[in-house]
Amino acid sequence: DHLYLPNFGYRMDRYNASYDRLPALSVLANPTVLSMISSSVYFDPEKTVLIEAEPYKEVVVNGCSIVPIPAVHKVKEGEQPYIFLLKKGGKSFFYATDTGPIDESSLKLLRELLDDPIDIVALDSTLGFMKEVTFPYHHTAEQVIDSMHKMREIGIIDDSSLVVAHHFSHYPNPPQRDLEEFYRQFGISVASDALLLDI
């Protein structure tokens, strides 16, 4: 999601009573973002590992394979937003939130990285039932359904994959119950606070 440097401050010794037990935080980002972090007053090299991300290039962090996929999102010049494919123990999770619809060429490159269809996809659903889309950096409900169909056609997901609508803006989305009723007809689950998924 978005970079907010003061969040790193909460991990610093003066603000964190459990600092000694705090594990190192691995940050996977493009060089511009890594430079912003490393030059920040909030950067703690003792507790932060900076890893350069390259599109479609696998990195292993704590035994988990992570593949950055370019997101469609508004950022500052020089920054590159990513969504991530995670693989571990034969299971896979595609975290595709805070992004507009992913173009077909990117989806095909993603497919080449897979041995099997993805187990779980969390898909951006920010714009809900908006009809006129002037902001291409998120999905409407209709685009969620279109993206799911494209992923299925390309072979990224299949009928056993769990697709979860995620990252909602309150303005264009109805209450949770109505969202669940709408997405259920397409075989899509709806995220909620504190949702746990077992892969």
TrEMBL record:
Pfam families (UniProt xref): Lactamase_B_2
InterPro entries, alphabetically?
A: Metallo-B-lactamas, RibonucZ/Hydroxyglut_hydro
Q: Where in this chain does the record put each Metallo-beta-lactamase domain? A: 26-152
Q: What is this protein called?
A: Metallo-beta-lactamase domain-containing protein
Organism whose genome encodes this protein? Mesotoga prima
